[in-house]
Design goal:
mainly alpha, 81% helix, globular
């Protein structure tokens, strides 16, 4: 992780020397489509590796999915309402609520697979978690963008 932060900081420092953010925003704009492709490819790969188990055990999948949905939407609703009541601007409230809502499934997948194997129940639960979290988080991003007007004006 610290290696990634090092390269991120170095890239930011080199591209943002003039402190006008234009070169940095140009790079981010160029990388954005590739990050979406990478996210979708990861989800498809994980689904493909666990597809047989998912199809054969729908009850177990439901027992994983239902609490995840309740937890994710519940935490978001509580934190979003609290942020709105506290008078936070949208550019602070929306990312903070996304962070509060997000689970660390990426790390959980790696740990579950390395400790218990690819076809274990733990790996299945984490893969289902990723498959649920991605569309749920995208729906919450959509919702946060649609409700921008609920919040105080952004402070610049």
């Amino acid at each position: 992780m610290s290696c990634c932060l090092f390269w991120q900081g170095l890239t930011r420092k080199r591209l943002d020397r003039a402190n006008d953010h234009t070169r940095l925003h140009a790079l981010l704009g160029a990388l954005k489509p590739w990050s979406i492709v990478g996210l979708l490819a990861t989800v498809v790969l994980l689904l493909g590796l666990q597809a047989q188990t998912i199809v054969e055990q729908p009850l177990i999948i439901g027992l994983i999915v239902i609490p995840l949905l309740l937890q994710t939407y519940g935490i978001f609703a509580l934190s979003y309402l609290a942020a709105q009541r506290l008078g936070l601007p949208h550019n602070i409230a929306a990312p903070a609520c996304m962070i509060a809502t997000s689970n660390s499934f990426e790390l959980a997948v790696a740990v579950a697979i390395s400790l218990f194997g690819m076809h274990s129940g733990a790996a299945l639960a984490t893969v289902v978690g990723v498959l649920v979290e991605v569309p749920v988080m995208l729906s919450l991003v959509w919702f946060a963008n649609q409700t921008r007007g609920w919040f105080a004006a952004q402070s610049q």
